[in-house]
Amino acid sequence: MPAAGHGSRMAADLPKQYLKLDQRTVAEHSVARLLDSVPLQALVVVVAADDPLWPQLPVASRAGVVTAFGGPTRAESVLNGLAALPGAGDHDWVLVHDMARPCVRAADIRRLIEECGSDGAILAAPVADTLKQSDGSRILATLDRSTVWRALTPQLFPVGALRAALQTALQAGAEITDEASAMERAGWQPRLVAGAADNIKITWPADLPLARFFLAQQQQ
Ligand code: C5P
């Protein structure tokens, strides 16, 4: 679970994973969702080296939870996480899940694993709005939204293939905003598995009440 970003768009006093949704923080919800979904060999949480809050959460000392330190980019943080996976071989599989997605459903994680092909798979959601391609000010084209999906997490790949794809992308200076994009650059064709749209990534201040609403709704 990468959790070493600055969360600057949230403009909060605390990094977004330590904001409270109910009695529990975003981080505690996200970790619990993963641990309660499928049996995992280990769960590596990648935090900033100067993050004083993560070690204070009881969940950080749960059995099987390992802490690693992040890098300047998401790709480097995920690579550090892969390096910290205890006893993982290249042919083992890894789920990469944004710490900032506390509403992921266990059923979606299980379906992702069931429907995963040999090139890996990601959870994804259809797009509701009409999408415009732009040069920043003018519209250049309208995209066919039936072919466009929102990439969610978890994303599921073989450890060795993901490591190699991330290393190659980093060396090329490519901007990697999810793991699948590194795999695509390396010639893999991961599957899309439709997931619930309430698996939002907490990014903006308005996402916090939305996540609270989704969590409450899921419990009904
Ligand atoms: O920036 P973005 O919202 O795409 O970040 C997604 C996830 O990646 C977050 O959980 C964030 O903490 C993590 N991240 C990281 N290391 C970075 C940048 C982002 O672990 N250098």
TrEMBL record:
Catalytic activity field: 2-C-methyl-D-erythritol 4-phosphate + CTP + H(+) = 4-CDP-2-C-methyl-D-erythritol + diphosphate
Enzyme class: transferase
Enzyme Commission number(s) from the entry: 2.7.7.60
Keyword entries, A-Z: Isoprene biosynthesis, Nucleotidyltransferase, Transferase
Record's keyword annotation contains Membrane: no
GO terms assigned for molecular function: 2-C-methyl-D-erythritol 4-phosphate cytidylyltransferase activity
Site (Positions MEP for the nucleophilic attack): 145, 201
Pathway: Isoprenoid biosynthesis; isopentenyl diphosphate biosynthesis via DXP pathway; isopentenyl diphosphate from 1-deoxy-D-xylulose 5-phosphate: step 2/6
Site feature location: Transition state stabilizer: 9, 16
Pfam family, one: IspD
Alphabetized HAMAP family for the sequence: IspD
Task of the protein: Catalyzes the formation of 4-diphosphocytidyl-2-C-methyl-D-erythritol from CTP and 2-C-methyl-D-erythritol 4-phosphate (MEP).
Family, as annotated: Belongs to the IspD/TarI cytidylyltransferase family. IspD subfamily.
Name of protein: 2-C-methyl-D-erythritol 4-phosphate cytidylyltransferase
Native species: Isoalcanivorax beigongshangi
